[in-house]
TrEMBL record:
GO terms for biological process: DNA integration. Residues 1-144 form the Integrase catalytic domain. PROSITE patterns: INTEGRASE. GO terms for molecular function: nucleic acid binding. InterPro entries: Integrase_cat-core, RNaseH-like_sf, RNaseH_sf. PANTHER family: TRANSPOSASE, TRANSPOSASE RV3428C-RELATED. This is Integrase-like protein. It comes from Fonticella tunisiensis.
Length: 210
């Protein structure tokens, strides 16, 4: 993720394909790194965040829509064949790939991420940017004051996810097109529960009674 004004950036690596859970986890790592979040985030089109487009309205995946609702940021989704809108991100990916990753010997993913953070601190965010002619870290010191506080953070020591869901009239919670039963009598208008995924096991907790 890269901040548009300062070009201050964070890279997060995995040694396996990203899932929706990983995608959300990476967001939280970035918000933690920046110490805040922006009002809008620009994305290239990807199946992890959008599944369809209905007359100009983007239909997001269920998990990402929940995340947007929770975090309250705006989404700008780049259109196809629109290199100008996604150029900043593509430039950052290329820059990190050819200035950090290509020179590294991979041992394990934790070490690779740690080495990348160190490289960003001494090089990626500390050298003059080719376009802005400024040092991202120095500009970020001013930009950071304008970031929004994070309304909700996940446990960044794991890939656990905790989201709020409405209980349906039949005393079930709908998650990924599957219905999960909660105790009879749980439902009442507007009743919410917390659904937590820990190591691929779903836990549902009554928010009111904890």
């Amino acid at each position: 993720m890269v901040l548009s004004h300062s070009r201050y950036k964070l890279a997060y690596w995995q040694d396996k394909p990203f899932t929706a859970t990983d995608f959300i986890y990476a967001h939280n790592k970035a918000f933690e790194y920046f110490g805040g979040m922006t009002t809008e985030i620009v994305y290239d089109q990807d199946r992890l965040l959008a599944v369809d487009e209905n007359f100009g309205d983007i239909v997001f995946t269920e998990e990402f829509q929940k995340y947007i609702d929770l975090m309250k940021f705006k989404v700008y989704l780049c259109r196809g064949f629109d290199p100008q809108s996604k150029g900043k991100v593509e430039a950052v990916v290329k820059y990190i790939k050819y200035n950090f990753a290509v020179h590294r010997t991979f041992s394990d993913i934790a070490s690779f991420n740690s080495e990348c953070l160190a490289w960003l601190d001494r090089t990626g965010n500390s050298k003059v940017h080719g376009t802005t002619k400024k040092i991202p870290k120095e500009v970020f010191a001013l930009e950071k004051k304008h970031l929004l506080s994070i309304p909700h953070t996940f446990d960044n020591k794991s890939s656990n996810i905790s989201l709020t869901y409405i209980v349906r009239k039949d005393n079930t919670v709908l998650y990924k097109q599957n219905r999960y039963q909660v105790p009879k009598g749980t439902y009442c208008p507007g009743k919410k529960v917390e659904l937590t995924i820990v190591d691929n096991i779903i836990h549902i907790k009554d928010i009111d009674s904890n």
